[in-house]
Amino acid sequence: MSRSRSHEEKGSTSYLISVVLVAVIGGLLFGYDTAVISGAEKGLQAFFSNASDFTYTDGIHGFTTSSALIGCVIGAFVSGFLASRRGRKRALLIAGVLFLLSALGSYYPEFLFFNEGEATMGLLVAFNLYRILGGIGVGIASALCPMYIAEIAPYNKRGTLVSWNQFAIIFGQLVVYFVNFIIIRSHVNDPAIQEWTAQVGWRMMFVSEAVPAGIFTLLIPFVPETPRYLALNGAHEKSLKVLTKINGKKRANEILEEIKATAVEKREPLFTYGWIVIFVGIMLSVFQQVIGINAVLYFAPRIFESMGMGDPMMYTVFMGIINISFTILAIVTVERLGRKPLLISGSILMAVGALGVALSNMTEVPSIVPVVSILIYSASFMFSWGPICWVYMSELFPNTIRSQATAIAVAFQWIFNFVVSSTFVPLYNFSHFLAYAIYGTVCILAAVFVWKLVPETKGKTLEQMTTFWRNRK
């Protein structure tokens, strides 16, 4: 049998992988953009502390380090409109352009309107606007990259392929940890390193994102629109063509008929399938944030420094490597063990890690104890809530409300991301014990929620999930 004939009968795995690899660059940018601030925030603080027309307070710094999250909320909300009206592919292209503009603007916020190197309130506003612009890109990509992959992937590979997106997010964070580490190390022997970091170092960290952003923006036009979106908009021949390339001719026709049977129109009212499906999606997003993981990821260098660890950036990179390793664990087990067991076990182990850190702040223990507890907490998230929440976001909702419901659920995710990130520093400074005791308690509540209310989606097609919610309402 010829290679082209074989692809027509069985589908092309290489084609599927190449399309997914382009989509997950959006996940890499998500991780890169949200983590770049961890290395740049001290330089930013030093730069704007020299402002002549205002006082750069800790409160303003807290807002500046978290301002991108405002854009994330906006991006998540508009992602549903863009996905349903302009398509998944075009929406991802818009996200890529926003990433690129944000990277360049954050590097040189003085562009056109301000004097180079002069810290002013106007320049701070411009910088935050560029960060918010990138946040909009993150919000769009965070909702649509998993959705795009889920609508492209065969049902028996969907969990694994969507988990690649989380791998890309963590890989993006690891890459930017390395980039930030290298940028700082390049001037470690410079007597004027503090001044260099305050004037140049943070800029180099932000502009480094322009490389993956440019690659993503150039490659997205070459991937297809998802077959579900095409079918929902009446482009059945185009949908069948994409499905055939991925699944083979026979299975492609079966999938197309399933899509038609569950989608009499391309959009339905949000609560067509009852309130419970929306509630479950929103609470999965909320729990993914209020368990507190981003407080660790965004402020890792400061946390390790407070634990007495020398060279906190090195420990941050080490944590990134561990996170990558445990994300791979999720990728290889999600289709074997299912979604619920990973979420429940991850929640319990996260609680152990968080409470371990909390108790370390109540008793005299070696500094390695809270460090190991933090690593257990972080690693447990990476094989559970990190990837599996995104898998659920991509496959939980019925076809005809997926873009709307995903947008709302992911918007709640970014709202609570902002709440956790903006409250962590004052809460941490008030009481290390209280901060991690709260996160540990929430982890236990998350395990109970998943056990009681969240359905298992392993082995089900997206159309079968539509039928499941229709019968349950």
Description:
The protein is mostly helical and 473 residues long. The chain has helices at 3-10, 13-48, 58-66, 68-85, 88-107, 121-152, 158-185, 193-207, 210-219, 227-232, 236-247, 249-262, 276-290, 293-298, 300-306, 312-337, 339-360, 368-382, 385-395, 402-430, 432-453, 462-472. The longest helix is centred in the N-terminal third of the chain and has 36 residues, at 13-48. The mean pLDDT is 84.
What topology emerges from the helices and strands here?
Layout: H1 3-10, H2 13-48, H3 58-66, H4 68-85, H5 88-107, H6 121-152, H7 158-185, H8 193-207, H9 210-219, H10 227-232, H11 236-247, H12 249-262, H13 276-290, H14 293-298, H15 300-306, H16 312-337, H17 339-360, H18 368-382, H19 385-395, H20 402-430, H21 432-453, H22 462-472
Helix pairs in contact: 1-11, 2-5, 2-6, 2-7, 2-8, 2-9, 4-5, 4-6, 4-20, 5-6, 5-8, 5-9, 6-7, 6-19, 6-20, 7-8, 7-16, 7-19, 11-12, 13-19, 13-20, 13-21, 15-16, 16-17, 16-18, 17-18, 17-19, 17-21, 20-21
